[in-house]
Amino acid sequence: MSRSISWAILAAIAAAGIASAQAAPRDQAVLELVAREIRPHLPSDGIGGAAIAVRIDGRTLFLNTGLADVAQKRPITTDSLFNLASLRKAFEATVLGQAFRRGELSFDDPVARYVSELQHGNDIRRVTLGQLATHTSGLLLPPDEPPWPTRSYTLGEFIRLVNDWKLADGREPGKQHIYTHAGYVLLQLALERRFGMPIAELIDRRVTRPLGLASTLLPQRGANGRARLARPFTERTVQGYDAEGRPIGAPGDQETFYDFPGAGQMFSSARDLAVFLAANVGELPIDRGLEEAMQLAQRGVFRTEPEVMQALAWEVIERDGVTLVDKPGGLYNASAYIGVVPREKLGLVILINRGSQYPYEFGREFLFKLAHTRAR
User: Fold this and answer.
1) For position 341, which CATH number holds?
2) Residue 63 falls inside a structural domain
3) Closest alpha carbon to 96 in 292, 339, 316
């Protein structure tokens, strides 16, 4: 399949567009509800903005607000490119789920089976791929929590950190939930070694290209910290701002504590992520294996709170008969959210070019409210 959207997916999107036109008054009411309820969750100073996609009734509705670049007075559009922060993990979880389903690896495989440099750390040699993907390994490195490092780590330095890591007293692999970015960096290395290709190519071949996501990219990181994007993409990339509205770097700035290929952030648009949403609720004519991999990635495997289970990257929240699956993400210059209610075929994407905005607080409540409204 080419980088363009397949004919089958195009047909599905076209059909959804016709249905959307026929349901315009109802769609407008949904967009007005989104605009009204998200407004208190966005900065009031006009610096930055948001691109939002809502999946409902087999259609996708888009809402854009604010500026992609304040200095240039460039507005945010549905095709603006945002730093996805930890939303990237949902793509890697899909790759992992597909590989498991194909019998190419097991969730119980020790990560040291694939990352051969892990020969000296007794504790890391007990950790499995599944534990890394569900944040239950117990792994916690300096880049995972404050005080944040003031430098980045090369691949060799990262391997040494992992080999030297020791489980804290009372912790065992698979027995607790500790959110770890380092765990997904290690999972990235394991997937690269297992399949003999860079993680960007692996995600492209197995997820983004089959879905026709032509604006979802994991670029290399340049010496100046910016993503190496072709000019047509750079022109669509938003400027990132911190919580106080100060610009951080230039458009395409990648924030990472790891200075080796594949360890930066992905970029995507609300339009592309809307397709990813539709695929994750089973509404696109895609390969059955890819669809099953997405469903597998959404399956809760470790209970973290009475109403919350951890899946492969995703969190599963059960409340009043509604099951919501979502993933938040955030950096100093970006805030992001993606969530689905599979049974109701509902989905929501929120991309904000400003740090510390916590869109999941709005996103979860909005999706629960929408699901309960439809269930009446």
Assistant:
1) 3.40.710.10
2) yes
3) 292
Question: Considering the domain boundaries, does residue 296 fall inside one?
Answer: yes
345 three-class SS: coil
> How many helices (H) and strands (E) would you count in the chain?
12, 11
Domain assignment present for 56: yes
DSSP three-state, residue 242: coil
Distance CA 141, CA 160 (A): 11
| pTM beyond 0.90 | yes
Number of domains in the chain: 1
**Structure-token pair, residue 246:** 């100060």
Angstrom distances, CA of residue 106 to CA of 31, 97, 109, 131, 293: 43, 9, 5, 11, 13
| 203: nearest Cα among 314, 94, 290 | 94
pLDDT in tens, 98-140: 999 999 999 999 999 999 999 877 899 999 999 999 999 999 9
What is the helix (H) or strand (E) element at residue 278, kind and residue range?
A: helix 270-280
Residue 326, SS3?
A: strand
From the list 27, 98, 54, the residue with the least C-alpha distance to 341 is 54
Q: What is the mean pLDDT of the chain?
A: 92
Distance CA 273, CA 210 (A): 14
- The Cα 334–Cα 354 span in angstroms is 5
Residue bearing tokens 């991309």: 351
Whole-number Å distance between alpha carbons of 332 and 354 = 7
Residue 65 and residue 42 in contact, taking contact as beta carbons nearer than 8 Å: yes
Cis link prior to 147 (omega < 30° from 0)?
A: yes
- From CA 269, how far away is CA 177, in angstroms rounded? 30
Cβ-contact 294, 286 below 8 angstroms: no
259-266: average pLDDT: 93
Q: Give kind and range of the element (H or E) at residue 341.
A: strand 334-341
Could you give the 3-state DSSP secondary structure of residue 292? helix
| Residue 328 exposed, middle or buried by CB count within 10 Å (0-12, 13-18, 19+) | buried
- Please identify which residue in the block is written with the tokens 């610009």: 247
Distance CA 159, CA 190 (A): 12
Which range of residues forms the domain containing residue 296? 7-85+228-245+264-375
On whether residue 323 sits in a domain, the answer given is yes
Question: Per the structure block, which two tokens stand in for 364?
Answer: 């979860």
